[in-house]
Amino acid sequence: MAGQLDTRIEDADDTGIEAFATHDVINQAPEYGGINLATGDPILRACLAGHLDDGVLADVEAQGAETGSHEFLELGRLANTQLPVLKTHDRRGRRSDQVEFHPAYHDLMRHSFAGGLHSALLDGGVSTQISRAAKFFLTSQAETGHTCPITMTNAAVSVLAKYPEVCADYLPKMQTRTYDPRFLLISEKNGITIGMGMTEKQGGTDLRAISSTAEAGNQGRYAITGHKWFFSAPMCDAFLVLAKTTTGPSCFLIPRILPDGRVNDLRFQRLKDKLGNKSNASSEVEFHRAEGYLLGDEGRGIATIIDMVTPTRIDCALGSAGQMRAALSRAVHHCRHRKVFGAYLIDQPLMTQVLADMALDVAAATALAMRLVRAAARADSDPVEAAYARLMTPAIKYWICKTGPALTYEALECLGGNGYVEDFDMARIYRDAPVNPIWEGSGNVMALDVLRALGRHPEAPGLVLEELSSSGDPSIVTACTDLQRLAAQAISDNGQARILTERLALTGAAAALKELALDDVADAFAKTRLSGGWRTTYGMLPVGIDAAEIVESLCPAAA
Predict the structure, then answer these.
(1) I want to staple 419 with a disulfide (CB 3.0 to 4.6 A). Which of 39, 214, 320, 412 is the partner?
(2) Domain with CATH 1.20.140.10 in the chain
């Protein structure tokens, strides 16, 4: 024993602590980041080509460099490490109803404000909408929680701009590029955000079942009494809310702080403990005769607020497409650096098949979401684009958002145990994936909205199918013919609406890829997605598709 002890002491360093041999960590992928998410994405580049001038394109590419930097990705992580905290009362016992966020959340909000992601509908112009969509897609690859108030503020323009007599003081504050989180009168702030509240405990998506009431008062003000089961995001400066008058559901603008400086009577009950989307605060609220301003006619509130739906659903599709790209990029990054059985994962046939299969859906989701943005931006002047936006918005939102969680899980599995622990951001991306399929209408709502579009706009199917089949690609033409049959079936039996909705989105995706002149990718997508075969997992590409080439073309090694 003495001899062993002497030997150990001789091997110890001068601190008296035994020096054990250390080894470098090997066969682990380097930290993801330090890349340009815009220039490294061939599909996004193809979507923007010919639609943006050089100056605007350079702005998008600068956004790609920033959102792909290690520093920005770290903001996304930090913003989700500390949950928002509701402070119902201040230290002296006065009602305050304020929410505290991690500083990184505010940094992300400042970035999105500076990029104009919250104000594009006010800024106007097709180019503005396309560049904003690209920036939203890029930002969503780093962090999606903070984009909730960004989306709502941008979408609220669709409603507020129609009522300048009520909203004149709001619109200029919404258009500024300065984020201002201070709890102040709107007139004293440099920039504002707008939230919304429609869902109640008893009603869910049935907005006509709301129980909140509005009582008319003086000078166009109404007293709102009731509750909202989901109220996002509670630190916004004003909210679009539905409440019933004697004539039915009506739309109101409810400010947090009233013009005379009083805090409005919105009582936040608690913040939702959500699966994901952790950085963003979602709340339950009660209105105790809160003051609101009527927008539109009494009893026409659903028709008034419905104008927010299309831009919100487009952002759901863009956000999910961005998450899918983020998940795929991390999976490919890991597989390019991880060796198993003497070969890099990305070179192993089964893994290459999985990555290529996922890459096809990511490419399709990106192309389809950006195609929808162009249609919505041109809908006022082009009847074909208007028909596309009406019919395809719910279908595209349905397919992209529903594909996101499954694809994100598959990408997580590519990282193995690393993907399942919180040290890596794949776990957060996976938790965040289900929110967009639920927000602004879940799957069945989207499928029923496709049927409603068919009924309300009978000209839309013909215009859209002609547009989709214009490439002349045989598989797309055949799919369009089949869609006519599926539409007739779904109209007679609403239980078939999901089949129609998914096939419509898949056909639209194939056409969007074909439009980008990425023939190999478009053909592989059409061959595997329009064939009608039942597929429950990724990695089952048929013989004849070059999986390695698809991965390299859609996720270049330099990216």
Answers:
(1) 412
(2) 306-554
Q: Would you state the pLDDT for residue 23? A: 66
Segments of 112-172 assigned E as strands: none
Task: For residue 53, give Cα distances in angstroms to 138, 174, 366, 435.
Answer: 19, 26, 20, 34
Structure tokens at 466: 């002609």
Q: What's the length of the chain?
A: 559
Predicted local distance difference test score (pLDDT) of residue 205: 83
d(CA 174, CA 154): 8
CB 287 within 8 A of CB 236: no
What's the pLDDT tens digit per position in 324-334? 999 999 999 99
C-beta atoms surrounding 363 within 10 Å: 32
Q: What is the pLDDT of residues 301-315, one digit of tens each?
A: 999 999 999 999 999
Q: Distance from CA of residue 272 to its chain's centroid? A: 19
CATH 2.40.110.20 range(s) for the chain read: 186-302
Q: What is the pLDDT of residues 189-223, one digit of tens each?
A: 999 999 999 999 998 888 889 999 999 998 889 99
Residue 54: Cβ-neighbour burial (10 angstroms; 0-12, 13-18, 19+): exposed
Burial of 549 (0-12, 13-18, 19+ CB in 10 A): middle
The two tokens of residue 219 are 């000078």
Contact (CB, 8 A) for 119 and 174: yes
Cβ neighbour number for residue 59 with a 10 Å cutoff: 17
Which residues 6+ apart lie within 8 Å of 471 measured at CB?
Answer: 511, 514, 515
pLDDT per position as a tens digit, 235-274: 999 999 999 999 999 999 999 999 999 999 999 999 999 9
Copy the structure tokens of residue 182. 């201070």
d(C-alpha 464, C-alpha 390), whole Å: 10
How far apart, in whole angstroms, are the C-alpha atoms of residue 67 and residue 33?
9
Class of domain 186-302: mainly beta
The tokens 């539905």 sit on which residue? 242
* 290 φ, ψ (degrees, to nearest 5): -70, 140
Q: Between the CA of residue 444 and those of 202, 348, 369, 394, what are the distances in Å? A: 18, 39, 20, 10
Q: What is the CATH number of domain 306-554?
A: 1.20.140.10
* 558, two tokens: 């330099």
CA distance 515 to 517: 5
CA-to-CA distance for 109 and 436, rounded, in angstroms? 19
In angstroms, the CA 353 to CA 327 distance is 16
